TrEMBL record, chain A:
Subcellular location field: Cell membrane
Name listed for the protein in its UniProt record: Sugar ABC transporter permease
Family label: Belongs to the binding-protein-dependent transport system permease family.
KW Transport (keyword) present: yes
Organism field: Streptomyces cathayae
UniProtKB/TrEMBL annotation, chain B:
Listed name of the protein: ABC transporter substrate-binding protein
The entry's keywords: Signal
Signal peptide interval: 1-30
Domain of life: Bacteria
Listed SUPFAM superfamilies: Periplasmic binding protein-like II (SSF53850)
PANTHER family, alphabetized: ARABINOSE-BINDING PROTEIN-RELATED (PTHR43649), SUGAR BINDING SECRETED PROTEIN (PTHR43649:SF32)
Matches recorded under InterPro entries: Bact_solute-bd_prot1, SBP
């Protein structure tokens, strides 16, 4: 060891390197390199599959979509692209169909998300009580979520049918005039929201339930010792206790509402589904994207709608962040 | 432990990376055949992509061909909705993958195919034994330089299907000859009869016709030029034929003569089953739909009368994909399927009217009667209607889309929108869709 230190000091070898033969040294170096690769590289190798898949199925389409959105291109002839710069975006900005779809997306989003989350909260609260067959009810609340959109939407379409639907029949039984669910704007949007609510309430309820069960029981004990009613306990212990989960479900539902597509498409059926009703009365942004791409075969304009949707989500979250920061500053 | 651990990590990492790359690579390298068909051990597999009820599989023709040609196996995939089918076909043509050896082509798409995809379909020009078609039928699927991209299956001559029992309740004649005379030569008279029907009908709420768009299509398709002129320019906004059809259909909608249904959408089928309307303008291929959806309970209540004027609504072709590994065999199959005997067979079984002149002249077709429609001589009615179809029919690239958009515009009128406003909306939409 001593000799190696002096030699190292003399600058012939790096400090700490043992004196060995050339072959051993390279072998050691290789194993050191491998060790370093193992420590530093392995984590990257482990996450690589995700990023490779992400690059292929998310990033590449994203970039390609933005490229397409700057062109005039038809589905049948994808190899013939005409550069139009931002014309598609300008056109979309001036297109009343876009604003109509945006408005519908917002209204359907609100009338489906708000009742859905409130109902989920109540349902989770009930499921959180000790009761018989709680497992059955928990599984039952997940069943709608496990149903495919297509099947659910098809059944609801029949229920909401104008002439022979169950709902109009029930309305008729109590002497109310039948409602033209598909053709009128608000009834159509309510009907579509019903499908969304039906499918997602149980799913959100289970998320809430999981969060509720993580709330320490002594908080409830303390609250009941202080004489808080069940309702008071709910508003003062449960809701604050699961706040982060509520935020999470709101974020998820917002993204889901922005991309709403399957329910209105099947609710309308055929050409009417694609345009969101004869008057576009329930055309969402997702449907507009589909109409441009797969009915009009204009891929450039379709990609533009996709990017507009993406940017809207980004905008929404930036705005939400800003509001949060402003609030924390003022308080 | 360290070496073992790192070895294992390395092995896992390598597998993970290779696996991910393989996953990505797997997406780009498809199978050997682009169409699914091929030859193996002396056996030929031919794949077909069809839509709706074209009658090829439904009437057992494919099975018959397989029996007569034991070395051939046919796999047919049938999409219910033509719009969905065509969208998928477009995507696959663009990708050059996932196609079938034989693809069905609806008449509304024929022009788009001949203009933009002619290099992707095999040429039938000069194929022996294919000179029996109505002359205008083959010209619709031919390119400007004389390529024939497919062979015709059925055509869509028109008649009016009506409920005898409802006509009786409204004090109108029920005999198909007399009913045909009521509106002979003029669609205005058909609507006029509707007014009489509405005034005279006692016993419940029954609309005169199913939808305004049915009437609109029937009127528009009776003329050589519809939405495009011969040069290929759009004339949908100035063609008087379209405007007239729009006005009369709007009249019918405004006067509540329609049941405000959308044809081929779910509300229409229960409407047929429960009898909420008395008439429907029906191309030949619609008979099978009506009899199926109206059901046994209504057998004998429906009848068929001649339409005021001839028109051609619908019809299809069979094309063969150029890149198909079994191109010749597929073309042979298409020629057989569209031969006069087979077309006559389909007509007898389900009522799709042949596009073959020879088949139309055959006794099988001429003497056919429909039991469901009160024994109506549908062979004679539709055969005569086929003769009235204009010899020249100008198709356009976006015919199918424009037709759908007009149907929606008329649905707006049926829902209470003023017709001028609905017309302007329709024009805007068409501009968006085809521009």
């Amino acid at each position: 060891m001593a000799t190696s230190t002096t030699k190292a000091l003399a600058g012939e070898e790096p400090p700490g390197a043992p004196r060995t033969t050339g072959g051993e040294r390279t072998a050691r170096r290789r194993s050191a390199l491998l060790h370093r690769l193992d420590v530093k590289g392995a984590p990257f190798a482990f996450v690589a599959p995700f990023f490779v898949v992400f690059a292929a199925f998310s990033f590449y389409p994203l970039v390609y979509t933005s490229w397409i959105s700057l062109h005039d291109v038809e589905l049948a002839t994808l190899d013939v692209m005409e550069w139009v710069a931002f014309d598609n975006y300008v056109e979309l900005w001036g297109d009343s169909r876009f604003w109509n779809a945006l408005q519908n997306t917002l209204t359907i989003g609100v009338i489906s998300t708000v009742p859905q989350l409130l109902m989920a909260l109540g349902l989770a609260h009930l499921l959180n009580y000790r009761m018989r067959a709680s497992l059955f009810f928990r599984v039952a609340s997940l069943v709608p979520y496990a149903t495919s959109v297509a099947a659910a939407a098809l059944v609801f379409t029949m229920i909401f049918e104008r002439d022979f639907g169950m709902i109009n029949w029930a309305l008729g039984a109590v002497g109310v005039d039948p409602v033209n669910w598909e053709a009128d704007k608000w009834p159509a949007q309510v009907a579509i929201s019903t499908i969304v609510i039906w499918r997602w309430t149980g799913y959100n309820a289970l998320l809430y339930l999981a969060a509720m069960q993580a709330i320490p029981a002594d908080r409830y004990e303390a609250a009941s010792l202080d004489g808080a009613s069940r309702w008071k306990q709910f508003t003062h212990v449960t809701v604050p206790g699961i706040r982060s989960t509520i935020v999470f479900t709101i974020v998820l539902s917002t993204i889901g509402a922005t991309q709403l597509f399957g329910e209105p498409l099947i609710f309308g059926q055929g050409p009417n589904g694609i345009t969101g009703g004869a008057d576009n009365q329930y055309q969402t942004l997702g449907l507009l994207l589909y109409e441009e791409g797969w009915k009009n075969y204009q891929m450039g304009r379709s990609a533009t709608v996709a990017w507009a949707m993406f940017m809207l989500l980004v905008l929404a979250f930036v705005a939400q962040r800003l509001i949060k920061r402003l609030r924390s500053r003022t308080s | 432990m360290g070496t073992l651990g790192s070895l294992r990590t390395r092995a896992v990492a390598t597998v993970a990376v290779v696996g991910a790359l393989a996953l990505v690579a797997g997406c780009s390298s498809g199978g050997d055949s682009v169409t699914g068909g091929g030859k193996k051990d002396g056996k030929v597999t031919i794949t077909m992509g069809l839509f709706g009820v074209m009658g090829l599989k439904e009437t057992g023709l494919l099975e018959q061909y397989e029996k007569e040609n034991p070395d051939v196996e046919i796999k047919a995939e049938i999409a219910g909705d033509e719009q969905t089918y065509y969208t998928a076909l477009q995507t696959r043509l663009a990708a050059g993958d996932g196609l079938k050896d034989i693809q069905g082509i609806e008449i509304g798409r024929a022009k788009e195919i001949t203009e933009t995809q002619s290099d992707k379909f095999a040429d039938f020009a000069g194929t022996a034994g294919t000179d029996h078609f109505l002359p205008w039928k083959q010209s619709q699927i031919s390119t400007a330089d004389g390529k024939v991209l497919g062979l015709g299956t059925d055509i869509g001559p028109m008649a009016v299907c009506y409920r005898k029992d409802y006509f009786e309740k409204a004090g109108l004649p029920t005999d198909r000859e007399e009913v045909g005379k009521l509106w002979e030569g003029d669609w205005n008279k058909y609507v006029e009869v509707g007014r009489t029907f509405k005034k005279g009908f006692k016993g419940g709420e029954v609309a005169y016709m199913d939808s305004a768009s049915g009437l609109f299509n029937a009127m528009v398709y009776g003329h050589s030029e519809q939405y495009y002129d011969e040069k290929g320019d759009l004339i949908h906004d100035k063609n008087p034929v379209v405007k007239d059809a729009w006005e009369l259909s709007s009249d019918a909608a405004d006067e509540d003569l329609t049941a405000k249904l959308r044809q081929f959408q779910p509300g229409w089928d229960p409407g047929l089953a429960n009898g909420t309307f008395a008439t429907a303008v029906c191309p030949a291929w619609m008979l099978s739909h009506i009899s199926e959806k109206a059901g046994d309970a209504n057998q004998g209540k429906w009848d068929v009368a001649r339409a005021p004027k001839g028109a051609n609504w619908g019809g299809a072709f069979l094309g063969v994909v150029e890149k198909s590994p079994v191109k010749e065999e597929a073309q042979k199959l298409v020629a057989w399927l569209t031969a006069p005997e087979q077309q006559a067979h389909i007509f007898k079984e389900i009522g799709n009217i042949p596009s073959s002149q020879e088949a139309l002249q055959s006794d099988d077709v001429k003497n056919a009667e429909s039991e469901y429609f009160s024994g109506a001589p549908i062979g004679q009615i539709f055969g005569a209607a086929a003769q009235e179809i204009p010899d020249k029919q100008v198709l356009g690239r976006k015919d199918g889309t424009i037709k759908d958009t007009f149907s929606q515009g008329l649905a707006l009128v049926e829902q209470g929108t003023a017709r001028d406003k609905a017309w302007n909306t329709t024009m805007e939409r068409i501009e968006k869709a085809v521009g």
